[in-house]
Amino acid sequence: MKIRIPLLLAVLYLWSSMAAWAQQAIPAGDILQARAAVPLFPSTLLPRVKPPAPEPPPVPDKVAVAVTGDSLADGIWGAIYRKLVRDKRYVIRRNAKNSTGFTTEGLLGQIDEGFTPTPADAVIMMIGANDRRSFFVDGKSKALFGTPPWRTFYGDRTAAFMDYLKTRDVPVVWILLPIMRDEAAARDARLINELVTKAAADRPWVRTVDTWSLTADAEGAYAAHFKDLNGKVRLMRDNDGVHFTPPGYELIAESVLNLLREASPKFRLLPR
């Protein structure tokens, strides 16, 4: 018993000394050094944890596309319809009409029709093939074709159409006119393209698709034959020098669908 008591006292003294040392404040400098010693990045020796795979984009139940404009737009509708007809998620509405244009009407009714019976998710527009004529109001000439007043009238109707589309809050793809075989028609088509491009420049919700360079040869002249989607040279323009053959419409339609894929998540699952 005499031997165990001193040993017990020694253990108690050692324990109390360690407790007192542990209660002493650690200098701030030591804390900063300790923090600096902690690596900012995981060690290369540690196993890497793979981030979770991104979730696939949601598949829309139904997506509607309204195609508006004139007979050129009607050809675009046919090309898009043939491409997507087997995918039941997409509804391609045929709202374009032959022999129409901004020189005869404002075409706002085509927009309303495109959003019936349910709202459309995008609008595709192509117009101008029938607009090589003067403006008439109540049977009287309002502005002769190509004159400054005519340019103002045409630009205003184009802008009004684009502004009306803005209220629908959907992507708008506007296809510009191609080069025409007749030189006078080509000159007039270029004028219409300039007016449309000018209106679209101030309206970011409208994206334009150029078809001029696509339909001209290396010298900038009208070309009836050029490469299709498969890279094969084929007859791509109709005999009238204005419209396209089915492969020609399909080539332009692919550019339109690419723009829709960029413009809205609803169209990123469009088949290629």
Describe the 3D structure.
It is a single chain. This protein is of the alpha/beta class and 272 residues long. Helix content is 40%, strand content 14%. It has eight helices and nine strands. It has helices at residues 4-22, 28-36, 71-84, 108-114, 148-166, 183-201, 212-215, 246-263, and strands at 63-69, 90-94, 122-126, 135-137, 140-143, 172-175, 206-209, 225-227, 233-235. A five-stranded parallel sheet has the order 2-1-3-6-7, sandwiched between helices. Strands 4-5 form a two-stranded antiparallel ribbon. A two-stranded antiparallel ribbon has the order 8-9. Helix 3 (71-84) crosses helix 8 (246-263) and helix 5 (148-166) crosses helix 6 (183-201). The longest helix is centred in the N-terminal third of the chain and has 19 residues, at 4-22. The protein is globular and about 75 Å long. The model has no long low-confidence stretch (mean pLDDT 86).
Summarize the structure.
This protein is an alpha/beta fold. It is built from eight helices and nine strands.
List the helices and strands and how they pair.
Layout (H helix, E strand, L loop, with lengths): L3 H19 L5 H9 L26 E7 L1 H14 L5 E5 L13 H7 L7 E5 L8 E3 L2 E4 L4 H19 L5 E4 L7 H19 L4 E4 L2 H4 L9 E3 L5 E3 L10 H18 L9
Parallel strand pairs: 1-2, 1-3, 3-6, 6-7
Antiparallel strand pairs: 4-5, 8-9
Helix pairs in contact: 3-8, 5-6
